Inverse folding.
């Protein structure tokens, strides 16, 4: 009962702190919104792609026109490769297509002329953009190849043969490539808000808990906890109250992001009871970390200043900033040394693969182990600062 | 006044360096974060994938794909091929035993040779999207070659204008199949120079933490006022201008050191190349000044310590979010991309990235330097004006 009162007073103090509310609610939601927009559904709209075809001749201009006509692309012309490179780097377009100077000449003369697909390697272009561009390039190259063969074997002018090839291309049967993804749903890796909502939930619940250690340190420093001990309250009750308060904050923040994600951003959390259990387990892990920091750090300033960078670093390692599926295997292994990666694995399994509770038992077990060890360590250290 | 400034700056710096959290913010955290990003996206790891092939066709078209594409010289070392039964391919991908699977249907070769449509299926899983995309590109490139060969034969026959002999048609087909597509899509990078991930994220993380690093300068003005040490300082006939200059100097020194250490560390550890040193230093100095000016102005607008703390965190995070230090601006709606240019850190980042990608010297970063410098001078002057009144009050 006393523990509940302690936890409640902590929550009330928090509700009056407008800055804390900013970090607790507003910042995660804004980040989910912005990043979700950035990594939104690639299939839902035409992908912006820049095209530079300086001095590429007639076939080059035709290629640009074909790209502009592609239903999957929003092709925009650029004057030269330099300007296009800048636009790609700045994210104005998702990728660039550079048709080399002398493209027309080379192809007519029977030489090769490769088209460059310019991407920024630090943020790969969406796969559908590359596929769509490759298809357009391949279509034109096929026509050129056909025209060349016809021109050589039947001794007709190249342009006549090219016109014939184009007319015939429309009637040619196609060998289609059908891309399917295994798993319950179309995409096994969630996109847009379906990824950023769980990612920021994991990221911020952890950061808030780490930074929240400050109030614990402050209470210790001001002697609040010792004075409580002077009242007929046992150390165990005080510890339980502290833990309960931290846990309530972590859970509350997680729930807010969960609900905002669901109601505002339309995130489909998969099996809601399983997602909530995952959230509760992760909140326990975060509580353990917050308590442990509160026990070992010397001053409150350290907790507030170290919390965000360390939380961001662990978030990066654990797949909150980008999916771990795209990093090298050793980095993926390192990420799984921390609870974030396990929580993300769990959320991804629920959201993308519709795995039920049974599908995430391993992740839940690992997180529960994290929570148990951290909480035990924290209790032991805090008890020493209280009683010892 | 200079003596006062130097004394105050020295004292502030000593005080900051004794606090380990300042060291973490200024030097350790930006480097660690940039390293993680560098390791995650660094190009040092080679692409490798295991693909399952379920060949129900067993004809020349399927063999052309398995032997001519998957076992080709360029891919042989990167791709491991597992031949499987059509029924088990999906399950293997689902269990993660292979990264993707190709399903080559029965009658594929016959269909292609007879000019009938056919479908080749690529099964991938979200666990390994890159391997899945590569598999899809390989299949698409191969079917494009098939289509081109078919079209070439049809066009040549059509241009010849007379029905071919069987041998003639076969020779034509062989000749068409022997030549690759004359134009293909090849990968290229932005900018004239090779870009290492550390070149990008080094500056980005350094700028992100810069605002936290320098905000202590203005905060210490508030702290000294609250603790009463400011009044005692001024009672000792120290000129207020000197005290403030000292605080700004300390923030400037720590901020610049933080950026320069990041430059040095990424260069030594990751072999990063930030570009022309003179331009790097100019952009560093102007960025640090803008960070000091903005944090100082925000903090002097606050009435209490808590407000100062709150306002500065709010402004710093908002700027980082809009400026693209925290997340990448790629594919953001255009409005948000423009918003990055409302922030000095957005300009600073643009300058550093241009310098890495385009090379060149001061001229490359002239505009970013001018913008960040003006922001720094204007906000700094306003902050100084307010701070003097605060100190005097």
């Amino acid at each position: 009962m006393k523990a509940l009162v302690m936890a409640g007073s902590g929550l009330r103090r928090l509700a009056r702190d407008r800055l804390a509310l900013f970090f607790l609610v507003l910042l995660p939601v804004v980040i989910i919104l912005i990043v979700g927009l950035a990594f939104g559904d690639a299939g839902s709209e035409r992908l912006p792609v820049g095209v530079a075809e300086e001095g590429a001749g007639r076939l080059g201009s035709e290629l640009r026109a074909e790209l502009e006509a592609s239903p999957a692309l929003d092709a925009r012309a650029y004057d030269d490769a330099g300007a296009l490179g800048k636009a790609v780097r700045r994210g104005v377009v998702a990728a660039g297509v550079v048709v080399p100077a002398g493209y027309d000449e080379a192809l007519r003369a029977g030489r090769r002329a490769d088209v460059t697909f310019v991407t920024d390697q630090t943020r790969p272009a969406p796969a559908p953009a590359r596929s769509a561009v490759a298809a357009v390039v391949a279509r034109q190259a096929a026509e050129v190849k056909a025209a060349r063969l016809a021109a050589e074997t039947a001794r007709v002018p190249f342009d006549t043969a090219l016109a014939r090839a184009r007319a015939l291309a429309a009637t040619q049967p196609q060998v289609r490539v059908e891309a399917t993804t295994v798993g319950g749903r179309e995409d096994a890796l969630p996109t847009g808000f379906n990824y950023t909502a769980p990612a920021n939930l994991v990221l911020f619940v952890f950061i808030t808990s780490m930074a929240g250690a400050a109030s614990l340190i402050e209470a210790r420093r001001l002697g609040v906890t010792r004075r409580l001990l002077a009242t007929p309250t046992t150390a165990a009750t005080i510890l339980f109250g502290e833990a309960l308060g931290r846990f309530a904050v972590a859970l509350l923040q997680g729930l807010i992001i969960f609900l905002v994600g669901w109601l505002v951003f339309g995130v489909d959390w998969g099996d809601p009871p399983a997602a909530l259990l995952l959230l509760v387990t992760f909140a326990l892990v975060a509580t353990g970390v917050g308590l442990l920091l509160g026990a070992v750090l010397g001053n409150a300033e350290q907790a507030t200043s170290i919390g965000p960078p360390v939380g961001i670093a662990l978030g990066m390692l654990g797949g909150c900033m980008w999916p771990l599926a795209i990093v090298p295997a050793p980095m993926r292994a390192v990420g799984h040394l921390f609870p974030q990666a396990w929580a993300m694995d769990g959320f991804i399994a629920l959201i993308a693969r519709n795995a039920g509770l049974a599908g995430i038992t391993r992740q839940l077990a690992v997180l529960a182990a994290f929570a148990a060890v951290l909480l035990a360590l924290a209790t032991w250290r805090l008890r020493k600062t209280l009683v010892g | 006044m200079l003596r006062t400034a130097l004394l105050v700056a020295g004292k502030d710096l000593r005080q900051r360096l004794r606090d380990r959290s300042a060291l973490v913010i200024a030097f350790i955290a930006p480097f660690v974060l940039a390293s993680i990003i560098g390791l995650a996206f660094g190009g040092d790891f080679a692409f490798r994938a295991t693909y399952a092939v379920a060949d129900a066709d067993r004809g020349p078209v399927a063999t052309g794909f398995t032997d001519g594409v998957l076992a080709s010289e360029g891919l042989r070392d990167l791709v491991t091929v597992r031949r499987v039964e059509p029924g088990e391919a999906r399950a293997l991908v689902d269990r993660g035993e292979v990264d993707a699977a190709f399903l080559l249907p029965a009658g594929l070769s016959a269909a292609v040779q007879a000019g009938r449509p056919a479908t080749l299926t690529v099964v991938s899983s979200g666990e390994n999207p890159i391997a899945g995309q590569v598999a899809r590109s390989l299949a698409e490139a191969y079917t494009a070659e098939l289509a081109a060969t078919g079209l070439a034969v049809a066009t040549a026959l059509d241009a010849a204008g007379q029905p071919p002999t069987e041998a003639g048609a076969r020779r034509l087909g062989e000749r068409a199949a022997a030549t690759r597509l004359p134009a293909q899509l090849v990968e290229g990078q932005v900018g004239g120079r090779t870009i290492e991930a550390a070149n990008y994220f080094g500056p980005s993380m350094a700028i992100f933490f810069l605002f936290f690093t320098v905000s202590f300068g203005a905060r210490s003005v508030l702290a000294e006022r609250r603790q009463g040490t400011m009044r005692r300082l001024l009672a000792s006939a120290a000129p207020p201008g000197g005290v403030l200059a000292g605080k700004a100097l300390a923030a400037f020194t720590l901020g610049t050191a933080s950026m320069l250490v990041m430059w040095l560390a990424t260069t030594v550890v990751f072999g990063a190349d930030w570009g022309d040193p003179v331009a790097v230093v100019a952009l560093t100095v102007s960025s640090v000044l803008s960070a000091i000016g903005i944090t100082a102005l925000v903090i002097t607008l606050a009435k209490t310590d808590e407000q100062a703390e709150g306002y500065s965190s709010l402004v710093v995070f908002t700027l980082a979010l809009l400026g693209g230090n925290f997340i990448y601006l790629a594919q953001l709606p255009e409005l948000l991309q423009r918003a990055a240019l409302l922030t000095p850190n957005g300009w600073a980042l643009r300058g550093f990235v241009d310098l890495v990608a385009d090379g060149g010297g001061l001229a490359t970063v002239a505009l970013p330097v001018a913008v960040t410098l003006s922001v720094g001078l204007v906000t700094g002057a306003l902050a100084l004006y307010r701070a003097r009144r605060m100190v005097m009050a």
Remarks:
- Chain B has a mean pLDDT of 83.
- Chain B touches chain A through 106 residues (CB under 8 Å).
- Residues 129-160 of chain B form the longest helix (32 residues).
- Strands of chain B lie at 49-55, 79-83, 100-104, 118-124, 185-189.
